[in-house]
């Protein structure tokens, strides 16, 4: 009888101990929540390569729906034809400042525009002061190389040719995609050759990739520098 009671006591004690062990291993926060709070802390504590005051949200980038046209830039040789009068037809090379010179209009800045955008800008300038209606066509006879630099936590960092306008994720894909150590943010540095200044755009890759916030997939210009920092978060392996 005593032996039976002892065995029952040991069995009950084992169950209680197992229950306590399971309770100790029960997580108090989900892994997704932990990553979210850690990423937020990482940014709020200024662990970034840039000052918070110099960053511009990705949504602030001007956008358009046409991403396939070639982007005009310094050194490109172009032909401009005005349907209404051949006297305004021009063949010229875009200057280092991004300008072309046309009869009547003088200097017109067309750098970082597509051919269609440049046509519209010239048409507006002509109809504003000189013509009732203007139909302009622009043809690129010679184009200079365009490139984008992708560095940081990507599989194949480097500088890549970008003959047509692309968005951020397409440029990251050219670099082989994000590496396993990539963090949740991305920085796009854009130079303004006219003012000799730079602007840095902050992109939340977590919102873009996991939540489908396409406004973060910004258009990339020639000579942009894309930097993907490594994650400083603690990675937890195994089941919790």
Model description:
Strand 7 and strand 8 form a beta hairpin. The strands form 4 sheets. Strands 1-11-10-13-7-8 form a 6-stranded mixed beta sheet. The chain has a 3-stranded antiparallel beta sheet with strand order 3-2-6, with helices on one face. Strands 4-5 form a two-stranded antiparallel ribbon. With 240 residues, the chain is an alpha+beta fold. Helix content is 27%, strand content 26%. The protein starts with a helix and ends in a 12-residue tail after the last strand. The C terminus is likely disordered. The radius of gyration is 29 Å and the shape is elongated. It has 2 domains: 119 residues, Outer membrane lipoprotein wza domain like (Outer membrane lipoprotein wza fold like); 66 residues, 2-Layer Sandwich (wza like fold), CATH 3.30.1950.10. InterPro entries: Poly_export, Poly_export_N, Soluble_ligand-bd. It holds the Pfam family Poly_export. GO terms for molecular function: polysaccharide transmembrane transporter activity. Keywords: Signal.
Attribute tags:
single chain; 240 residues; alpha+beta; Outer membrane lipoprotein wza fold like; wza like fold; 6-stranded mixed β-sheet; 5 helices; disordered C terminus; signal; Poly_export_N; Soluble_ligand-bd; Poly_export
């Amino acid at each position: 009888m005593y032996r039976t009671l002892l065995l029952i006591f040991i069995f009950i004690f084992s169950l209680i101990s197992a229950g306590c062990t399971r309770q100790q291993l029960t997580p108090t926060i989900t892994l997704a929540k932990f990553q979210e709070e850690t990423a937020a802390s990482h940014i709020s504590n200024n662990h970034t390569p840039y000052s918070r005051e110099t960053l511009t949200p990705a949504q602030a980038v001007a956008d358009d729906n046409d991403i396939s046209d070639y982007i005009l830039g310094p050194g490109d040789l172009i032909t401009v034809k005005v349907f209404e009068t051949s006297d305004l037809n021009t063949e010229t090379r875009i200057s280092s400042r991004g300008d072309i010179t046309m009869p009547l209009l003088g200097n017109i800045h067309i750098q970082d525009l597509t051919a269609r955008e440049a046509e519209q800008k010239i048409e507006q300038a002509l109809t504003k002061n000189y013509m009732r209606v203007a139909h302009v066509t622009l043809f690129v006879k010679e184009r200079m190389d365009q490139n984008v630099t992708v560095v940081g936590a990507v599989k194949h960092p480097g500088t890549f040719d970008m003959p047509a306008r692309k968005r951020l994720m397409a440029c990251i894909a050219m670099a082989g995609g994000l590496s396993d150590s990539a963090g949740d943010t991305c920085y796009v540095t854009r130079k303004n050759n006219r003012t000799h200044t730079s602007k840095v755009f902050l992109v939340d890759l977590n919102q873009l990739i996991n939540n489908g916030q396409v406004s973060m997939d910004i258009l990339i210009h020639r000579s942009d520098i894309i930097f993907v920092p490594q994650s400083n978060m603690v990675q937890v392996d195994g089941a919790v």
